[in-house]
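Figure 3 (text version): structure tokens given as input.
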């Protein structure tokens, strides 16, 4: 299990998630307000999350399709990512993220 921190305004919630699951999986499991309507096929961007700056560079870079979807967002942040594309590995133990509406 890998520890992931969800920052909601000034509140931090810590969750444990199986490795190789995504942030979208975690959101569905823990009822975090991320819709994920296309179930991870990079066709919606309703899984938009913002990765804490200390962790953003530790993630694999977004692929072309993810970058394209992110570029369509009106509330894009420098560290915006699609939660369905963030696969949690042991290297990401302690990863922090937020939902844009909570920043
Ligand atoms: S769930 Fe649709 S892009 Fe991530």
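Below: residues designed for each position.
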């Amino acid at each position: 299990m890998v520890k992931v921190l969800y920052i909601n305004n000034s509140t931090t919630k810590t969750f444990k998630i199986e490795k190789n699951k995504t942030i979208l999986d975690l959101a569905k499991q823990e009822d975090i307000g991320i819709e994920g309507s296309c179930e991870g096929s990079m066709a919606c961007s309703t899984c938009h999350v913002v990765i804490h700056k200390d962790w953003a560079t530790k993630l694999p870079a977004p692929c072309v399709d993810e970058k394209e979807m992110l570029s369509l967002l009106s509330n894009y942040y420098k560290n915006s990512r699609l939660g369905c594309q963030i696969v949690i590995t042991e290297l990401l133990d302690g990863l922090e993220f937020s939902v844009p509406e909570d920043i």
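The first helix runs from residue 23 to 30.
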